[in-house]
Write a structure and sequence with these properties.
Blueprint (H helix, E strand, L loop, with lengths): L1 H51 L2 H14 L4 H13 L3 H10 L5 H19 L1 E4 L3 E5 L5 H22 L7 E6 L17 E2 L3 E4 L6 H20 L6 H12 L15 H5 L8 H21 L4 H12 L1 H14 L3 H7 L2
Parallel strand pairs: 2-3, 3-5
Antiparallel strand pairs: 1-2, 4-5
Helix pairs in contact: 1-2, 2-3, 3-4, 3-5, 4-5, 6-7, 7-8, 8-10, 10-11, 11-12
Protein name: Peptidase MA-like domain-containing protein
Organism: Fibrobacter succinogenes (Bacteroides succinogenes)
InterPro entries: TPR-like_helical_dom_sf (IPR011990)
């Protein structure tokens, strides 16, 4: 009898221990699920901060995520890029040097940071509400202030068209020395460029009919970059910039066959044939105009195009075009006459 009672107690104790372990295990599982959901939510918020260029928000969240995943190389690369985007070049370099892995994107950030840090030391600086203007040589005060004035007008116009205000100040470099024209080789037909900074040769400032559309054009590229972190197809980027700068409104249809979507998607800067370049720019402008005309060509049409750009990151080129316009890029190209 005593033996049966002892066995019964052991079974009860065993069952209680099992239930306790199950309860503790469930509680641990629930905690991990909540932590993972919070982690995923923070990643979502961080991606949104990066998408809109809110670098302070992005930095705060990435630093918090790194506390949970200190060896996550993807987070570490994002951290380096966020420091770079805030023009904290020395911090960016030091952070990359502290990492225990190598990557070509990190090498690029170090190279670019060193070059831009040297620019900051060498160039003169003027500022306006939305711009930091850097210049080498001795451009006249008139040229510098005229560039800032045109940029502020362009900023207001483009921000109203897209209903979008960039989070950060933008940088313009007025240069004489080719050292400051930006990194990478480019053909002779390329004048001003946007590579994170608007870069304009100072000799353009002598001709208002030249520099005004150029500044509008390059500033449009800056807005596109601020609106989306996606890799924007070149035809969309160059097309909307031409529409806004208004400098190629009377060009005739180029002779020959239409370009391919692939040639319109990739960068035009590597193209050396002048006739091909002209054709790529013409079709880019007409394709974007076709999208804008479908919605009346007014402010709402530009805002819809901006939303299409912003959805490129998640949906890709054809996915975003189908969502907003009900067609693929190839179908759009075929509609251009």
């Amino acid at each position: 009898m005593a033996q049966k009672k002892s066995n019964w107690k052991r079974r009860v104790v065993g069952l209680l221990l099992m239930y306790v372990l199950m309860f503790v295990g469930y509680q641990y599982y629930e905690k991990k699920v909540v932590e993972r959901e919070q982690f995923e939510m923070m990643i979502h918020v961080t991606n949104e901060c990066i998408r809109v260029g809110d670098w302070k928000c992005a930095e705060k969240n990435v630093r918090e995520l790194l506390k949970s995943e200190p060896d996550d190389t993807n987070l570490q690369m994002h951290m380096a890029g966020i420091l770079f985007e805030q023009e904290r070049y020395q911090e960016c370099i030091s952070y990359i040097e502290s990492l225990n892995f190598k990557h070509k994107d990190l090498d690029y950030l170090v190279e670019k940071s060193n070059a831009l840090e040297q620019e900051l030391k060498n160039l003169g600086v003027e500022k306006s509400m939305h711009f930091r203007l850097e210049f080498d040589g001795g451009p006249s005060k008139k040229d510098v202030m005229e560039a800032l004035a045109v940029l502020e007008v362009a900023y207001d116009s483009i921000s109203n068209l897209f209903d979008f205000l960039p989070e950060n100040k933008m940088s313009l470099v007025l240069y004489e020395d080719k050292e400051y024209q930006g990194t990478g080789p480019r053909p002779d037909w390329v004048g001003a460029v946007f590579d994170g900074k608007l870069r304009v040769p100072v000799n353009m400032m002598a001709y208002r009919e030249v520099y005004r559309p150029v500044l509008f054009h390059e500033l449009t590229h800056a807005f596109v970059r601020a609106m989306t972190r996606a890799k924007v197809p070149c035809w969309m980027n160059e097309g909307i910039a031409q529409v806004i700068d208004g400098s190629r409104n009377n060009e005739e249809h180029p002779a020959g066959a239409k370009p391919s979507i692939e040639s319109l998607r990739k960068s035009f800067v590597k193209e050396t044939d002048a006739a091909t370049v002209k054709k790529l720019y013409w079709f880019s402008k007409r394709m974007v105009e076709e999208l804008l005309w479908r919605d009346g060509g007014g402010p709402e049409a530009f805002r819809k195009f901006a939303k299409c750009l912003q959805d490129l990151r998640e949906l890709g080129m054809d996915g975003s075009l189908k969502k907003h316009y009900g067609m693929t890029a190839q179908e759009l190209l075929e509609s251009v006459k």
